Amino acid sequence: MDAIKGFRRFAGAGALLGAAALAANAQDDPVVIGFIGSMSSDVGLSTLRGAEIAVDELNAAGGVLGGRQIKLVTADTFEDVTEGIKAYEYLNDVENVDFIVSGSIDDVSLGWFERMAEYRTPTLDTWTSYIGIIDMVVADYEKYKMYFMNIGTDYALATSLIDFGKDMLAGEMGWKSTVILQEDTAFGSGMGEFLTAELNAQAGIEIIETIVYDINAVDFAPIYNKAASLNPDFLYLISSVNSQVPSSQYVKLQVPVPMTGVNVAAMGRDFWDDTGGTGGGASSFSPLPASGMDHDPVSQQFVDTYMERYDSRPIYPHFNGFNAYFGIKNAIAAAERAGGFAPLDAWVTEMENTDVVLEKDGQLWHRFAYWKPGEIEPRTNREYTHNLKFDITEPYDDGVPPMVIVQWYQDGQQRIIYPPKYANGEFELPPWLN
Amino acid sequence: MVNILIQGLALSGLYALLAVGFTMIFSVGRVLNLAYGVYIMLGGYMYYTAVQVMGLPKIGGFLFAIAAGIAFAVLTYSILVRRLEGNPVAVEIATLILAVVMQSLIILIYRPVSKSMWPVVQGVFRYEGVFVTYNLLVAMVVSWVALAGLLIFVRYTRYGRAIQAVSMDRKGAIISGIDPRRMNLLTWAISGALGALAGVFFATYTQLNPSMWVGPLIVAVAVVVVGGIGSIVGSLIVAHIIGFMETFTTAMIAAELRGVFTMVLIIVVLVVAPKGLFGRGEL
């Protein structure tokens, strides 16, 4: 009997020691953050570099969640849906990540989205803006609540584009008709449908025709000739893939009609070199924080660190680089308040309570908060659960607009021309139109 | 209609230049050189490197590009294709793999992003509301000059006639004292030069991109299939059919269907006239 009692005491002490050792190990284990995205594209690299800077700053400040260091692991999607799904599985099955930050394009995010629901891994997207993903979160919150989108959805972006059309294109320039040049993608058709439904109704701009082109098109001469022959006041480009092609050919052909709209290539600072210095007069929307913008001090510090640290393209962070940097800091802060990334519900609640305001000269300049379940955006009268909280009603005093308009000038400078609060430059047409 | 006429004529000239080097190899060596698009890609990237990166004059850029095209074509033939002679399927697989490898190499050196190139000739020609770059018009003229020169070379020079002989009857050419391997090598070198030259105009007209070899290769294959194991003149005619068809589709039907009719044409010709529209004549 004594022997049994002795064994029990010994076993109990052993168990306690084991538990203590495990606890000590858990304390020493790093917090693992996974990056998913293309590691050779400007999009993916922007997110990755934003994540690297955030992680290094957090580690240098003594670690997180009780002094643990963060380990950043990566999985390349090659901008391919199947590879994206495999990458998401790799991060979970092999790297046992606590949190994932994504620089995936829309289609790839859609690919791994269901895997995310199975793994229940907290995930934050920095580039994808597809409204369909947010609609899924709204429709089945319990299933997808671990997902946050750190950029305004394309629906909100399109609403802002309508405002730009009303205020500047129709209001200031006096343009009343357009031909839409729309790429044949899900993003293009979604944006095109929205503009078709609302541009005339809200901005008074008639759409004469919509020309849909294949994203692999390399010869835009017949397209521009056809568009110009319809005599619109301006062309409305919707291009998120291979945008340099329509941009550079617009310049080479000196198309005699102004053009603006969505030109993803023109958002980044590398656009100038990519167009061989011929991009002056190009303008495009860009989510915030945009290249060419005057930044708040915290964002500017991030830019300075980025520029000092990286000397290869993208030479300046795209908006998703900022989104990754602030997104990781917000996710970690939520985890600190919740006691970790698990249990999931606690982290999700704290993430929903995130409200980080960045000011410039005493004005709200940027805000990282997220729409909560059931919360209705008043202008569009719909829910955007876990989307970055945007403000599409002037004077934008409750958040930031989903996008600004970036303008390129002949001297290679890039500035913001809309909305007025963020404007530091003037709308300018290419030289052959002046 | 004026739009289609001017656009179609200019585009067709570029297509003819893109396709003729491919047609030559197919006619002489009876193999589809699926690495042909690489000559076009190399032409574009070498010109870009010489003119926009190194600051060389444009003529230097052309020479650099053409030299690279010739060197790559000669190496492809000497190291790879010659060892696979008599097995066209193996040649096609090997050259396709080579093209993919070269694409990866270009990505490694230049990154996967697209780059815009300055036109060889600045300015835009405008007529009746139609606008076409001088660059494309020059490409059209260069194409005609190159094709005329090629035609003269093939028909009226000793080496050209020797190439024709190998193309028509390899055994007969050997009996006549012609070295078919030497003629093949010469054909590949000419093909490399033409491909690179076309690549410079194609890249300045469109853009530089590591996958830019695919589109022109499809045009070249279409010209060979539709034209048949063909003559240079046949290639010229088919290039114009495709060029005008694409321009017409974009302007009158739907821009996103531009390449579809080329594919449909290939299938129709394969079914209805397997030897192509112009059959097998002289080179």
Summed up:
The complex is a heterodimer of chains A (434) and B (283). Chain A is of the alpha/beta class.
Please explain how this structure is put together.
The complex is a heterodimer of chains A (434) and B (283). Chain A has helices at 2-28, 42-60, 81-93, 106-119, 131-139, 141-144, 154-172, 186-203, 221-229, 244-253, 271-274, 297-309, 319-338, 344-352, and strands spanning 31-37, 70-76, 99-103, 123-125, 147-149, 177-183, 206-213, 234-239, 259-263, 283-287, 355-360, 363-369, 376-377, 382-383, 403-408, 414-418. With 434 residues, chain A is an alpha/beta fold. Chain A folds into 2 domains: 27-153 and 296-383, Response regulator (Rossmann fold, 3-Layer(aba) Sandwich); 155-292 and 404-433, Rossmann fold. Chain A has a 5-stranded parallel sheet. In chain A, helix 4 (106-119) links the parallel strand 3 and strand 4 (123-125). In chain A, helix 13 crosses helix 14 (344-352). Chain A is globular. Residues 19-25 of chain A have low confidence and may be disordered. With 283 residues, chain B is mainly α. Chain B contains 11 helices and 2 strands, in the order ααααββααααααα. The longest helix of chain B is centred in the first third of the chain and has 28 residues, at 2-29. The A-B interface holds A 40-42, 184, 211-214, 216-219, 221-226, 228-229, 242, 244-245, 247-249, 251-256, 265, 270, 273-276, 278, 313 and B 3-4, 7, 11, 52, 107, 111-119, 124, 129-133, 135-136, 205-207, 209, 212, 215, 246-247, 250-251, 254-256, 258-259.
| Fourth-tier CATH superfamily name of the largest domain in chain A | Response regulator
* Largest interface chains and counts: A-B, 40 and 38 residues
If you average the pLDDT of chain A, what whole number results? 90
**Helix-strand pattern of chain B:** HHHHEEHHHHHHH
Main beta sheet of chain A: strand number and arrangement?
5 strands, parallel
Order of strands side by side in the largest beta sheet of chain B?
1-2
